[in-house]
């Protein structure tokens, strides 16, 4: 694939692969459920739209975004047939330093889980100043990051399955 790309603009036109052969896990945080529910629906519907069989989408709710890392690790440790894990959450800036601790822990944690299992972990966690910004990215004027997370998972699963 890479040898046939002439320039960077070619990347923006890569097609979204059909997902009929893949299995995905979606791990979704219950904290800020009004937002994460919309992210989940966006991710789920996008996978179905691109051919993933409903029985090949495994869904796991967790209490908050901090738990996404452990859950992704547990899920992959117990199911080697999963091609990628989509992690969805929404961390909203509050008055304390929780925001920084949670965001840093989740971003680093998910990266490490992906490397440990040699599988794609999609970082679908909104990190916003307020709920209005989050709603704008969960089906509002900035689209739905859940949809984007699903497309990332499809592209990465396809890449892994088609290495020479
Ligand atoms: C505690 C907490 C706070 C203050 N804020 C958020 C948030 O904005 N988004 C989120 O997903 N989770 C939050 N949590 C919960 C933590 O992620 C975690 O569930 C608890 O600290 C228990 O480990």
TrEMBL record:
One of its GO terms (molecular function) is 6,7-dimethyl-8-ribityllumazine synthase activity. Pathway: Cofactor biosynthesis; riboflavin biosynthesis; riboflavin from 2-hydroxy-3-oxobutyl phosphate and 5-amino-6-(D-ribitylamino)uracil: step 1/2. The keyword Transferase applies. Keywords: Riboflavin biosynthesis, Transferase. It catalyses: (2S)-2-hydroxy-3-oxobutyl phosphate + 5-amino-6-(D-ribitylamino)uracil = 6,7-dimethyl-8-(1-D-ribityl)lumazine + phosphate + 2 H2O + H(+). The active site is at 98 (proton donor). (2S)-2-hydroxy-3-oxobutyl phosphate binds at residues 95-96, 137. Its EC number is 2.5.1.78. InterPro entries: LS (IPR034964), LS/RS (IPR002180), LS/RS_sf (IPR036467). The keyword Chaperone does not apply. SUPFAM superfamilies: Lumazine synthase. 5-amino-6-(D-ribitylamino)uracil binds at residues 31, 65-67, 90-92, 123. Belongs to the DMRL synthase family. Catalyzes the formation of 6,7-dimethyl-8-ribityllumazine by condensation of 5-amino-6-(D-ribitylamino)uracil with 3,4-dihydroxy-2-butanone 4-phosphate. This is the penultimate step in the biosynthesis of riboflavin. This is 6,7-dimethyl-8-ribityllumazine synthase. It comes from Pedobacter flavus.
């Amino acid at each position: 694939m890479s040898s046939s790309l002439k320039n960077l603009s070619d990347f923006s036109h890569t097609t979204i692969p059909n997902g009929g052969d893949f299995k995905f896990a979606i791990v979704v945080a219950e904290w800020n459920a009004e937002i994460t529910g919309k992210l989940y629906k966006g991710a789920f519907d996008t996978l179905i739209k691109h051919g993933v069989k409903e029985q090949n989408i495994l869904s796991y709710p967790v209490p908050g975004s901090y738990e996404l890392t452990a859950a992704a690790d547990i899920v992959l440790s117990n199911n080697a047939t999963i091609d990628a894990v989509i992690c969805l959450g929404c961390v909203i800036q509050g008055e304390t330093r929780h925001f920084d601790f949670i965001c840093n822990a989740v971003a680093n944690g998910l990266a490490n889980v992906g490397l440990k299992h040699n599988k794609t972990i999609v970082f679908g966690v909104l990190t916003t100043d307020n709920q209005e910004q989050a709603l704008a990215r969960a089906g509002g004027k900035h689209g739905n990051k859940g949809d984007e997370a699903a497309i990332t998972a499809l592209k990465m699963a396809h890449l892994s399955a088609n290495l020479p």
